Amino acid sequence: MFKSILKLNEYMKGSRFLYLIGGISIAIATLFSLLIPLILRFTIDNIIGDEKVDIHPSIDPFFSSVVESGYFDGKLWIVALIIIGVTLLEGLFLFLKGKYTAISSENMAKKLRDKLYSHIQKLPFEYHIKTETGDLVQRCTSDVDTIRMFLSSQLIEVARAIIIVGISIPLMLSLNRDMTYITFLVIPIIFGFSFVFFIKIRSAFKISDETEGKLSTILQENLTGVKVVRAFTRQKFEIDKFDKVNKDYRDTTYKLMTLLAWFWSVSDFFCLLQIGVTVVSGTYFAVSGTMTIGTFLVFITYVSMLLWPIRQMGRILTDMGKSIVSINRIEEVLSYEEERKEGQTIKPPISGDIKIRNLSFAYESGKDVLKSINLDIEKSSTLAILGSTGSGKSTLVNILCGLYDYDRGSILIGNSEMKDIDKDWLRKHLTLILQEPFLFSRSIRDNLLMANENIGEDRLVETTRIANIHNDIIGFNKSYDTSIGENGVNLSGGQRQRLAIARSLLKDSPIIIFDDSLSAVDTETDLRIRNSLSQYRRDQTRIIISHRITTIMEADKIIVMDDGKIIQEGTHEQLLEEDGAYRRVYNLQTATSEAV
Ligand SMILES: Nc1ncnc2c1ncn2[C@@H]1O[C@H](COP(=O)(O)OP(=O)(O)OP(=O)(O)O)[C@@H](O)[C@H]1O
Ligand SMILES: [Mg+2]
How far apart, in whole angstroms, are the C-alpha atoms of residue 172 and residue 150? Predict the structure, then answer.
């Protein structure tokens, strides 16, 4: 709790001053609203009635001298002007409060979102693997919003209630002690009832939120997977599933609304009871002459001013609990350590020499996915990796890109241990092309220029020609400026792969890794790409993972992986001599291609 408040104070850095102005404004506005009943009392008792009363002991001498001079006689309009003036001032300060709390809390929210976003960009890859994207999105949006709401309205409401109670009680006590006790007879019950009620129904709120979450998950999954749903003719099943959750949502909301209706009517009853008690006893005191009509009016106005915030307090206090949860959820993300430790890393020249020694790796302890890998990759050579699915090929190259940290064995890049190298520096020199590349919903040109913004048209076309995608691109409506995705063209799997290859070539790094990134193009295009690649940048070190022998047979070195181990190593010719997996795969693939 205390820690959360400290954190909140930290988030507010830079917005504190404006927030303070908002807080002062609400205090002044509240003071004005409490002042109006006092002015009315003064008017009714001193000017309309003929009973002279004190306005308030502290400011009494001034006012009573004015009244006694008979200044106000026949000049009631002055009082009317004063009331209008005070009301206008109250309005003005309410406006200032609204403005400054909104500005400062929106500023806080923006800064917090920026902080989260830039932190998330620097989190290690493993964090993203084990975290659900939806959950992370929620932390950046609705959790931040909960905190913003807390600052812009809940905290302000609490402050306002405290000011009203804190000022009206001594005022009322000074006006009429007995009447004050009566005015506060039912208020503690209302507060207690509201507080206990909202604590009790916290779970109902939570269940309702969760069911709403489930509803949107189902909706989202279905809309993204609409092809699969249709292909398996699962529409009926999916509609039924949605219907069930939709019903659950309706029922929980209905239950919640019933509970709330019950709450408002019971607390309405208590409020009216309190007003009733005040009116009856006020009338009694006024008639018996122990209290003036004006004072009676003050009590009636104050009691209605008190009741609304007190009735809301239970709701506000329980909602404040939600803000603490949100702060903790945000802190959980912010406290996760960033992958780059400034100052502890080095930036050596990277040319393409890689030496892997006794490298073992497990995602979950005890289950080794890589087992004692030893491998030398020479600068400017091409290494090919063949292996059954799940044998650890992608894992190996992901480690080389610094996406996962290794702690058993060693990887030397040039003469430096990879662990010591700055991750951004490493990735600048090393490009990984995935089997299912991610393209942004932007133009083709923007996607290509992601790697390097200062590339001229000639270079762009040269590269897309190497990746065999240029002809496809100029075939599109707006050529290189065609958008990809929802509001543009839909690219085929092969086109996406080739575009990703062009994008990676533009990065022009000394090491490039193809993780099965030609799997969706036909053998002929594959051959064309490889031919043009071999003409291009001969000094580049390349690692090619593929299931297709024709793709890898020209490599300088081929390794065959199985179950996390390298089981064969050599050139195409050497491996064909051996009686092993490589030859079996080769025979199988040439037999099928001959059969076709
Ligand atoms: N993020 C992960 N968390 C836990 N286990 C993983 C993770 N990624 C991969 N694995 C497991 O590690 C093993 C090796 O996976 P990897 O992706 O390296 O195989 P691969 O050789 O690239 O296969 P494929 O040819 O199908 O791409 C598999 O058993 C897989 O289930
Ligand atoms: Mg793989």
Answer: 31
Closest CA relative to residue 156, chosen from 253, 38, 27, 264: 27
Give which of 337, 338, 318, 325 is closest to 3, Cα–Cα: 325
Task: Report pLDDT digits (tens) over 338-376.
Answer: 776 666 788 888 888 899 999 999 988 888 999 999 999
Give residues with Cβ within 8 angstroms of 146, minimum separation 6: 322, 323, 326
Q: Which atom of ligand 1 is nearest to the CA of 395?
A: 18
Question: Which ligand is the nearest neighbour of the Cα of 562?
Answer: 1
Buried/exposed 107-130: b ≥16 CB within 10 Å, e otherwise: bbbebbbebbeeebeebbeebeee
Residue ranges around ligand 1 (CB below 6 Å): 129, 363, 369, 387, 389-395, 516
Between CA 531 and CA 538, with CA 534 as vertex, the angle to 5 degrees is 170
Ligand 1: centre distance to CA 395 (Å): 6
When the candidates are 2.60.40.10, 2.60.120.290, 3.40.50.800, 3.40.50.300, the CATH number that belongs to 357-595 is 3.40.50.300
Beta strands in 277-362 (DSSP E): 354-362
Domain map (residue ranges) of the chain: 357-595
Q: How far is CA 189 from the centre of its chain?
A: 39
Least confident of 252-266, 332-346, 545-559: 332-346
- Pairwise CA distance, residues 549 & 552, whole Å: 5
Q: What's the gap in Å between 579 CA and the centre of ligand 1?
A: 27
| Residue with CA closest to ligand 1 atom 7 | 363
Q: Which residue is closest in CA terms to ligand 1's atom 3?
A: 363
CA nearest 586: which of 212, 568, 496?
Answer: 568
What are 207-243's pLDDT values in tens digits?
887 888 788 888 888 888 887 888 888 888 888 988 9
| Ion ligand 2 contact residues with beta carbon within 5 A | 394
What are the phi and psi torsion angles at 514 (to 5°)? -105, 105
CA-CA distance, 13 to 6, in Å (whole number)? 11
Q: Which of 335-363 are b and which e, b meaning 16 or more Cβ less than 10 Å from the residue's Cβ?
A: eeebbeeeeeeeebebebbbbbeebebbe
Tell me which residue has its CA closest to atom 4 in ligand 1: 363
Ligand 2: centre distance to CA 551 (Å): 16
Pocket-testing residue among 385, 389, 548, 567, ligand 1, by greatest number of atoms within 8 A of Cβ:
389
Give residue 370 CA to ligand 1 midpoint distance, Å: 10
Chain segment 53-70, per-residue pLDDT in tens: 555 555 556 666 666 666
Ligand 1 atom with the smallest distance to the CA of 130 is 1
Are the CB atoms for 422 and 340 separated by under 8 Å? Answer: yes
